[in-house]
Amino acid sequence: MVVIKNHEDQCRRYGQGAARLGVLAVLASCSTLSTLSPGKYIGAPTRAASHFALGMLGALSDPPILQWWQTLGLVLAGLVVVAYDIRCFDFTLACYVAKEAAAGALTGKHHIIGAVACFGAVLAVALSTERNGTVLLNFDGLGSNVSGGTVEPNGVKNAGLAESDMFREYGRIFALLTAMDCASECGGRYIKRFALVWRNYSTEITTATLLWGLTLSVSERRVVEHSLIVLLSYRAACYLLIRAQAVRAPAVVLYLFKLYGVLNYGWGGPSFVRVTDPRVATLVLKASVNKGDCLEARIATPAWRPVLSLESVDGELWRRMREGFNSVLDVLAPRLPELVPIAQRRTAELISRGTIIDAPEITRLSLEIFLEFLFRRRDLGAHVNVLAEASWEWRKEIAFKGKARVSLKTSAVDTVVVLLRQDPELWALFGEEWTEPERYSLLMQPFLISPAINTCDIMVAVARAGSNVSLDDAIRSAHPFPILERYLADPVFDDNGEVLVAGNTQVLLFADDFASAASWPVFSSGRRACAGAQYARSYLTVLRSALMDHALFRPEEGHRFSGRNNDTLEWDELWYLLSSLPKTILCQPS
Q1: Is the Cα dihedral 212, 217, 220, 222 positive or negative?
Q2: Separation of alpha carbons 221 and 225, rounded Å
Q3: Residue 240's pLDDT band (boundaries 50, 70, 90)?
Q4: Phi, psi angle pair for 501, to nearest 5°
Q5: Position 142 pLDDT exceeds 60
Q6: Reported pTM
Q7: Of 528, 380, 388, 403, which Cα lies nearest the Cα of 451?
Q8: Rounded alpha-carbon distances, angstroms, from residue 570 to 152, 575, 577
Q9: Which residues share a beta bridge with 509?
Q10: What pairs with residue 272 in β-bridges?
Q11: Tens-place pLDDT, residues 243-261
C-alpha cells in the first residue's frame, strides 16, 4: 500500500529535492569552469541574494490559491530582482525567467497570457536596462552597439554586447533549458513505467546532462548553474512554507477550541480533547452519535439551511431523519446497479467534449450522475445549472467565507421538489411531506449538495496523490472533513477496563492525524458513518479510473471554499469572519 501523508509527504519531497540540488551545486562548483566558486559567486553576495529572493518569490506564487492580483504583485517583485541583476551583472537571470515563462506557456503550467506578459516584460527590461552606466540597447538610437565592457561588483570583467551578440550568447541555452523544462513537465504524463522517477528526478537529470554532457560557453554555464541556485532556493522555501503550515494547524486549533469551551461553559464545562490514535478514535465514533455543541452546531447546521444536513443535526431530529433516510435507501436499492453505468456514460460524455475538467465541471458531473440516478431522466440540464450554482453558495457559507445567497438556495430546493413530484415512486414515499425541510433534505444533502462539494475535494486529493495510490489512501491524504466531532457523556474503555477517554469530553478528530493510518475508515464508523458509502464509493471509483491520467484533468482549477488549503482569504471574506465569529462563538445555536 502506498500512503500519502499530505504535509509530511510534501515536506519530504521538497526537502529531499533541495538536498539533491545542493549536492549537484557543490559538484558543479568543483569544476575549474564553474561560475559558483567562492571568488566568482559568493564574493558577490548581492547576486546570491537576488537568486535566493527569486526562488522564494516563486515558492510564494506557485500555489493555485492566490488571486491574480497577488500573483501579479509577486511577478512584478521578481522582475525588480531581475532588473537589479541585469543592471549589476549580466543577462543570466533574465534568461532563466524567460525560460520559465516560455516553458510554462508551452506546457500549460502557467496561464498563457501571464507567461507571455512575463516573458515580454523580462525582454523589455533586458533590452533597455543600463548596466553600470552602459546602455545595452538604446531605443532612442536603435542599432547602436556596446563597446568597452563593464566591471561587475565582484571584480569580474564583463564585456559589452551588441544586440545580435546578446541573442547569440544566450539563445542556444535558452532553447535547451526551455526544451528540457517542457520534457520535465510533460514527461510524467506519458512515461507510465518510470513516471514517478521522472517526476522526482527530471530536474537533476537534465541539469547534470547540460553541465557534464555538453560543451557550454561561460555564459551558458553561468545560466545553468545560477538556475540551479534559484531552483534550490525555491524548493527550500516550499519546504519551509509547508512545514510552517503543518506545524500551526492542529495544535493552534485545539487551543482555540479550548478557549471556546471556557468562554461558553466556564472552567466546569466539557474538556476538549484531541485524539490521534486511530483505534481510540474508532471507538469514540462507535460510542457516541452526539456531535456536541461545536463547529457542526455553530457553523455547519446554520450554513446548511434551509436544508437540514443529516451529517450535522443531532438528537431526536437526527434519529427521525435517519429513519426517513433508511426508507429512501430501501426505495433506491433496486436502482443501485444503474449508478455505475450512468457514471461511466456521463464521464465519457464530459471527456468527449474536450474541455478542461476543472472543479466547476466536476461539480456539474456529480449532479448529472445523481440527478439521473434519482429521477431516471437525462433531460435535466437546466436543473443541473440551478443546483451547481447553489452548491457554491452552500460551500462558501459552510467554509465560513461569506453569507450564501438565500435566493439560490431556495431555487435549488424548489427544483428538487418539482422533480420529486414528477417521480411517482419517490413521491409515494412521503407525499406532501417532501415539501418540508426534514424530508427534502434526505435527498438534497446526501445525494446532491454534499457530493457536489466533496467530490471536488476528493478529486483534488486523487490528482495530487497519483495513480499509484488507492482511492481510500488518496481520500485520507486530504479528507473533505478536516475535523470530526463527538461529545462523550460517558467514558470510553478498552478491553481491559482502562479509561481511554473520560466522560463529559468533547472529542476532536483531525483528519490529518489519520492520513497514514490504513485502518482509519474514510467513510467514518459507528451509527453516524456515511449511510450512502456504497453509492459514493461506486461513482468515485468510476471518476478516478476515467479521469486520473487524462491530460485535461485539472480539479484544482476553480476549486474554492474547501476549508483546507486551496483558496485565499479575500478582504470581504476576512470582514465576514471577523464580524461573524464573536456572535458564532458566544451565542447559543438556534
Answers
A1: positive
A2: 6
A3: confident
A4: -140, 130
A5: no
A6: 0.62
A7: 388
A8: 43, 9, 10
A9: 484
A10: 506
A11: 766 555 566 677 778 888 8
